[in-house]
Give the backbone structure.
Amino acid sequence: MSTVLKEIIYKVAIEAVKGSTDIAIDKIEFDSRKIGANDAFVAIRGTISNGHDYIETAIWNGAIAIIFDTLPENITHGITYIQVKDTNKALAFMAANYFGNPSEKLKLVGITGTNGKTTIASLLYQLFKKAGFKVGLLSTVKILVDEVEYKATHTTPDSITINHYLREMVEAGVEYCFMEVSSHGIHQKRTEALHFVGGIFTNLSHDHLDYHPTFAEYRDVKKSFFDNLPKTAFALSNIDDKNGQVMLQNTVAKKLTYALKSYSDYKAQILENQLSGLLLKINGNEVWVKLIGTFNAYNLLAIYGTAIELGLESLEVLRLLSDLESVSGRFQFIVSNSNITAIV
């Protein structure tokens, strides 16, 4: 498929242009090795390599448009050069435009936090499938376009991959998509230009400090996801976590809370906690679920709140919660014939 460059760069913060933007682009790439004839190359400054070092390679491979933040020394005649402030952000908008802004054509919910992202995203997918909807999943474990499965390679895929699968979901008639949103992905602007109808905050611990220099930066990157939600979206935060209220401080989205210990919009109480499951009281209604552990009580409460905010009826959601199976390899338990319990 080819799209006119000036349409692809819509909403991109451009600083300078040399050459024509009225040219047909076959595809967008940030890896010079994947460039073919009539492609646009976006030079990304990565943690290992700098795309600006591969501009000439990209042109040699057939690129006719180059998007960069620092003007290259050698300018090739007949090539369109576009200087932007932030190439990561530019790539996000370009990918969304190229694929027809698919996130606006379904209901996309992002889940962020240190722990619980995969479980919540996967169980929301499972719950909405059981409710009879066509559903998408973008997780660390796999990507699901309704029932078609693809292997996941990153916590948060790059902007091109995200929009590629979102468009595939739209074409397949998917109505809801649940997406894990990592701090790496937010920091590298991979979620920019996506239209979210909701965001969930699970919790925050001192993980990923190999990537973020300080805990404060790690927290603030997570918070920026909620800061950027539109006012039409909801922001659902775990306020039993000390950073739960921080996430909601500056968002214009509808602020909602969930908790086991604090006063909140969505409140749960653990009545029974056994190896066979949990008996929970959620907003005054009792429900037996097959998942185990206090952490899963939080996960299920986030799922309940999200399903309600997306328009499902309370008793129907409780019925669906009781039918959910634990995510493979996420605290599953097995009892042998000789009554030995193993936890995976």
About this structure: Residues 294-309 form the longest helix (16 residues). The chain has a mean pLDDT of 93. The first strand starts at residue 3 and ends at 4. The domain at 3-98 is CATH 3.40.1390.10 (Udp-n-acetylmuramoylalanyl-d-glutamate--2,6- Diaminopimelate Ligase; Chain: A, domain 1).
